[in-house]
Design the sequence.
DNA sequence: AATAAAAATTGACCGCGGTCGACTTTTTTC
DNA sequence: GAAAAAAGTCGACCGCGGTCAATTTTTATT
């Protein structure tokens, strides 16, 4: 039987993930040692390292699973026709929700996502592409509808929104905004971005 | 003499910083052990921990020194009258320059600045205030000149620019933009922010 | 079924960051 | 200036993340 090994590997990987979810949730990431994790998963310590390169990789694997689910969900009921502002807030807030669920996971994940180690770049770019494939269609449609300027690069627009999201999450971690204000803050920032920071010609009468 | 102890402490602190700059530059942050650092500074390992709480704190202390110098410099020749776009690009690019000088320092610093550990929040907020005291006057003046909308919160405007800066730095770390494109990218993003992502009334003829 | 080759598992081991109680130096008290 | 108190220094020690040579398990070959 040629499949035994493959099947077992998947099983072991799952066992590690399950143990990780359990122990990380119970005692936190830092307080859980690799040895405990291995014991809980019913394997030896060294074996873990033939499934994950580092301890944090285990965490990221979990985060990416969650994120992949989320993106699938978002893609499935992708309604391109609702206003872009509302839609973008919706998308980013659902990601933000994952972060608030476990602050410590979230911190490490954001650190690694925004400013990744050189070694993790490939994996990072993969995730980014998933993102783009979700956002580009939405933004392109919005351009066609006249909600977004057509002379702007889609990449720059995506980046613009993402940058504002980063800022909001950063502000949350530093305690500058509480969880319940996150959404309104993000919406305000996005609206600012759409309308522009400088007085528009049509608004000159107010200035 | 009551001052002996104080003076010595400052001296020792400096010795640690000097040793850190030397060794971190020579062999990198991760490859330098606390024990080596202590030896280079001519003190015992444990003593380091009565000056810095963690190894990374030594790094941050260095970064903050650099940043404080930079901010002093920027405050000194603060010309409030040049266009806000140009001025903001200038300010953020000079900070970005510090980051490019040592990628690894930069990564840790950005990770910690944007998404700080709970324990470091106080220190973080202090730094943020220095920032605000630099930016607020500039932005307020720009509002008066009519370069920025007066109906927007200064905090949100600051955040908006900072968010775009975060995005640009993130894109640099992920290799999406090379060093020489950093400035033009930042300028593009800032201009987008000023003009707005949606078609302005005065531009409707182009749509 | 026997044997060889390949792959996976393991835990003793390493080096590191960080701790802590023992020790030394400085300051205060009288 | 002697003794007590306070502050500072130190390195053996701890637990952890991560490695690797030895071993076991699976697959390929005949």
Sequence:
């Amino acid at each position: 039987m040629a499949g035994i090994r493959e099947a077992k590997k998947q099983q072991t990987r799952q066992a590690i993930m399950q143990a990780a979810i359990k122990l990380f949730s119970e005692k936190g990431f830092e307080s859980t040692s690799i040895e405990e994790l291995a014991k809980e998963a019913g394997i030896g310590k060294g074996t873990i390292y033939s499934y994950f390169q580092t301890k944090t990789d285990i965490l990221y694997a979990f985060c990416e699973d969650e994120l992949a689910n989320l993106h699938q969900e978002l893609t499935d009921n992708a309604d391109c026709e609702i206003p872009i502002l509302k839609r973008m807030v919706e998308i980013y807030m659902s990601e933000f929700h994952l972060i608030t669920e476990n602050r410590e996971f979230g911190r490490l994940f954001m650190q690694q996502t925004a400013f990744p180690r050189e070694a993790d770049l490939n994996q990072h770019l993969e995730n980014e592409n998933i993102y783009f494939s979700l956002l580009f269609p939405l933004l392109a449609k919005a351009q066609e509808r006249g909600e977004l300027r057509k002379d702007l690069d889609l990449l720059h627009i995506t980046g613009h929104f993402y940058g504002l999201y980063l800022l909001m999450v950063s502000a949350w971690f530093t305690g500058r905004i509480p969880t319940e204000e996150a959404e309104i803050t993000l919406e305000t920032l996005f609206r600012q971005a759409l309308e522009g920071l400088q007085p528009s010609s049509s608004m000159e009468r107010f200035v």
The radius of gyration of chain B is 21 Å. The longest helix of chain B spans residues 3-27. The domain at 56-196 of chain B is CATH 1.10.357 (Tetracycline Repressor; domain 2). Residues 1-2, 4-5, 8, 33-35, 45-46, 49, 53-55 of chain B lie near DNA strand C (CB under 10 Å from a C1').
